[in-house]
Design a protein that fits this description.
This protein is mostly helical. The protein has three domains: 71 residues, no CATH class; 84 residues, DNA polymerase, domain 1 (Orthogonal Bundle); 179 residues, Orthogonal Bundle (hpI Integrase, Chain A), CATH 1.10.443. The protein contains 16 helices and six strands. Helix 14 packs across helix 16. The chain is elongated and about 90 Å long. The termini are far apart.
């Protein structure tokens, strides 16, 4: 039968009880209360007896420990079902995050709950590392890319980390996942000839403006299509805005305007209707980026009309999606690659592109607008036929 005792020099009671293997073991109760220490000793011994069963399930262990706790403390041990906790986590995490990010989080969380089935109704403490590993393995087996699987694992770690910080679990079951090496598929930059073809096909539409913002400002698709005139200072020759990708950090990006883009924006501003519209690309601003009718798909159609190949890698097996070597993001690559080929320093390129690496950002945060503008102005004018 379990018992308690004190070691010389210690104020805490030690519990001595039979371990699952039949031998005696001892551990500190971390309490100076004799009655509480005795209850813990009985609790641990009862749990150990359960573990001597042949192949005990998490539910069996959970039931015995809960019963012993309630018997010796007179208090009901509240359970936190994983499925319920996931909903709480999603609700708490939604603050300060975009709908797109939350949609991604919810998809992974709900997929994990569905994968667990009835076990998702058990207390979160019963979820083991093997459960999370099995889910990650199933994701990979379904044909999802290594980058997607790694991101899904990161989201699960975040869910269980929050539970760990709140004291619901003693360790994170997703902390030691084994993942396949990430195989990065890189976008390719457009050539000058391809950018020229895109601009020729988009002439007179908001896509012409979006393409110029991507090529000369390194704008991402969503940022280019939702840019507002209040962010454009034609007199100072700069665009200052908060990129959607880093909006949660509330860091604004200041981009110098290339002369070709400046002339185009000045022409647009002069031809504004009354009352003027707040968006620089009003016909694109309200459209979603993704989806079959979204901006990404529309830009792919523009590429096709302009006879610019997207060099798709094809569709992966299972649930994987096709990866296009060229897309709107290739305009961003065009901007950075062109600057690199002109010998512009790496920290200047990263400042212009608004690189997400905070340590690198700190290194180039002192650069003046004049330095950045001088770098941008080295880029060729894609509207002139002599440039390649």
């Amino acid at each position: 039968m379990a018992s308690i005792y004190r070691r010389d020099g210690s104020v805490f009671w030690m519990a001595r009880f039979k371990a699952p293997g039949g031998g005696w073991t001892a551990r500190s109760t971390k309490t100076t209360n004799q009655a509480e220490a005795r209850k813990l000793a009985y609790l641990w011994e009862g749990a150990g007896a359960t573990l001597t069963l042949e192949s005990p399930t998490g539910a069996q262990v959970d039931k015995v420990v809960r019963s012993l706790w309630e018997q010796f403390t007179g208090k009901r041990l509240e359970l936190t079902p994983l499925s319920g906790y996931v909903e709480t986590w999603l609700s708490n995490t939604a603050k300060g995050r975009s709908p797109k990010t939350m949609s991604r989080y919810r998809k992974v969380a709900e997929d994990f709950v569905e994968f667990l089935g009835e076990r998702a109704k058990l207390d979160i403490r019963s979820i083991a590392g093997a459960d999370v590993q099995a889910f990650v393995n199933a994701e990979a087996a379904a044909g999802k890319g290594s980058t997607t699987v790694a991101l899904n694992a990161k989201i699960l770690r975040a869910i269980f980390n929050a539970a760990f910080r709140s004291g619901l679990i003693e360790k994170n079951p997703a902390a030691a996942l084994e993942l396949a090496p990430i195989e990065q598929e890189e976008r390719e930059p457009f050539t000058v000839a391809e950018v020229r073809s895109l601009l020729r096909k988009a002439k007179g539409t908001d896509w012409e403006t979006a393409v110029l913002l991507g090529a000369y400002g390194g704008f991402r698709l969503g940022d280019a299509c939702t840019l507002r005139w209040e962010c454009v200072d034609l007199k100072a020759g700069v665009i200052e805005f908060t990129p959607q990708k880093t909006a949660r950090k509330k860091k604004r990006l200041r981009v110098p305007i290339h002369p070709t883009l400046q002339a185009h924006l000045e022409e647009l501003a002069a031809g504004q209707s009354a009352p003027p519209k707040p968006e620089v690309c009003p016909t694109l601003a309200s459209q979603p980026v993704g989806g079959r009718a979204g901006l990404s798909r529309a830009f792919m159609d523009l590429m096709e009309d302009a006879r610019v190949s997207n060099k798709s890698t094809g569709t992966r097996e299972g649930l994987g999606r096709a990866f296009s070597r060229k897309s709107f993001h290739s305009l961003r690559h065009f901007a950075v690659t062109t600057l690199a080929n002109l010998g512009v320093a790496q920290d200047v390129r990263q400042k212009i592109a608004g690189h997400a690496d905070q340590k690198m950002t700190e290194r180039y945060s002192h650069l003046a607008d004049a330095t950045l503008r001088a770098a941008v102005e080295q880029m060729p004018d894609v509207l002139k036929k002599g440039n390649k």
